[in-house]
Amino acid sequence: MLKKAVIASIVFVASIAAFGCGKSATSVTLAGSTAFQPFAERLAEQYMESHNGVNITVQGGGSAVGIQSANSGAAQIGMADMVQLPDEAKGLTPVIVARDGVAIVVNPKNPITNLTTEQVRDIFNGKITNWKQLGGNDAPITVVSREAGSGTRSSFEKIIGSIQLKKDALIQDSNGTIRETVSNDPNAVSYLSHGMINEKVKPLTLDGIQSSVENIVNGTYKLSRPIFLLVKGNIQGEIKNFIDYVLSPEGQKTIKDNGLLPAKS
């Protein structure tokens, strides 16, 4: 559940954006998915360049924060990256603006290149604890996971199935910190938004299938999910204008050029 302090912080930031310069401005706040956050920030920058008098603030916090913020009014637009939206989102109007894969990632020094779905399940449940059990180095596996409420985590657990995360797993609060943790630990394994993969981590094939754009689009790579923008009530005014921009050819090109898949591939 979103804490009151987080909601207050988002409202405060939005207030500064709207009134800090002493000028009347239309303010729109987005909050939620850390996988989509950097893309939303770029889209907001582009939108504001051609829309004077509009201030768009983008906050992270995870998909649960996005849903709670949209419901409470702390944000006009919630961001969520989930295979299936929870009951808490039933009162919100969802718009799919992009699609994303979830890659299983290890440190580039790890010789392992492929895991099966069953092996991934056993690693995160704590049944497999050493890389040598998988044909790798004789080293303990460091399991790294997102926090409860993360859309990336809920998508990963729903698709892999029957995950009861091992108690000593390291918990990180964003895709960015997941990437840094794995890049600094040669024995770490985690999962990461396809749009956040770079040279710091090595994506593994899952059941022999690469987490490539082509395989995500054609459905052969099964760890994938839609990205939603969520609005309470009718989508209208500047909120509609911004979402329309995200779905426009220019907005969808920005999404594609920076590592995610367009809403309609």
Describe this structure in words.
The protein is an alpha/beta fold and 265 residues long. The protein has 2 domains: 4-98 and 226-262, Periplasmic binding protein-like II (D-Maltodextrin-Binding Protein, domain 2), CATH 3.40.190; 101-218, Periplasmic binding protein-like II (D-Maltodextrin-Binding Protein, domain 2, 3-Layer(aba) Sandwich). The chain contains 9 helices and 12 strands. It has helices at residues 4-19, 37-49, 63-72, 117-125, 151-160, 175-183, 213-218, 237-247, 249-257, and strands at 26-32, 54-61, 77-81, 92-106, 114-115, 142-146, 170-172, 188-193, 202-203, 205-206, 224-232, 261-262. The strands form 2 sheets. Strands 1, 2, 3, 4, 6, 7, 8, 9, 11 and 12 form a 10-stranded mixed beta sheet that branches. A two-stranded parallel sheet has the order 5-10. Helix 5 (151-160) links the parallel strand 6 and strand 7. It is elongated and about 60 Å long.
